[in-house]
Amino acid sequence: MSNLVAEKMKQEDVLMVTILITGWELKKEAPRLSLFDFQIAKPFTAEQIEKVVGRALNLYDIRVL
Hints:
alpha+beta
């Protein structure tokens, strides 16, 4: 389901940055990650979420330029 949402979002806005929040650790080469720019696995700390959101915002800024 999350892949369908990410796919639709990226169709609507090619600059969209996506973050997958999951309860499983997935390897970077996992097919379901192909539409996501970042992933974070539960449980996560506030510091970890702050870091991934910061990276996502930086990537968006790069895409916009």
